[in-house]
């Protein structure tokens, strides 16, 4: 996970209530999309290596 997304998640409430910068509906949708990036909410992809038989499951971004 990126540092930016970590900071966004940690300070979400403060960002939404900041009086100097009202958050538009478009900005709210963009923030929600960024916060759900690489989480179970975005879904999973499963990878399998036929050579070594390694399975990996990764969060979508």
Short précis:
This protein is of the alpha+beta class and 61 residues long.
Spell out the key features of this protein:
two-stranded antiparallel sheet; single chain; elongated; alpha+beta; 2 strands
What is the string of helix and strand elements?
Answer: HHHEE
Strand composition percent: 15-25%
Helix percent band: 40-55%
How many strands?
2
Shape label: elongated
Based on secondary structure, the structural category is alpha+beta
User: Strand order of the main beta sheet, please?
Assistant: 1-2
Major sheet details = 2 strands, antiparallel
Gyration radius over CA: 16 Å
Describe the structure.
The protein is an alpha+beta fold and 61 residues long. It is built from 3 helices and 2 strands; from the N terminus they run αααββ. The protein has a two-stranded antiparallel sheet. The longest helix is centred in the middle third of the chain and has 12 residues, at 25-36. It is elongated. The model has no long low-confidence stretch (mean pLDDT 84).
Secondary structure elements and pairings:
Elements: H1 3-10, H2 12-17, H3 25-36, E1 44-48, E2 55-59
Antiparallel strand pairs: 1-2
């Amino acid at each position: 996970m990126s540092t930016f997304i970590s900071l966004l998640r940690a300070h979400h409430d403060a960002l939404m209530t900041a009086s100097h910068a009202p958050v538009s509906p478009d900005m709210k949708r963009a923030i929600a999309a960024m916060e759900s990036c690489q989480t179970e909410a975005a879904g999973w992809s499963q990878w399998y290596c036929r050579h070594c038989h390694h399975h990996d499951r990764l969060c979508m971004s």
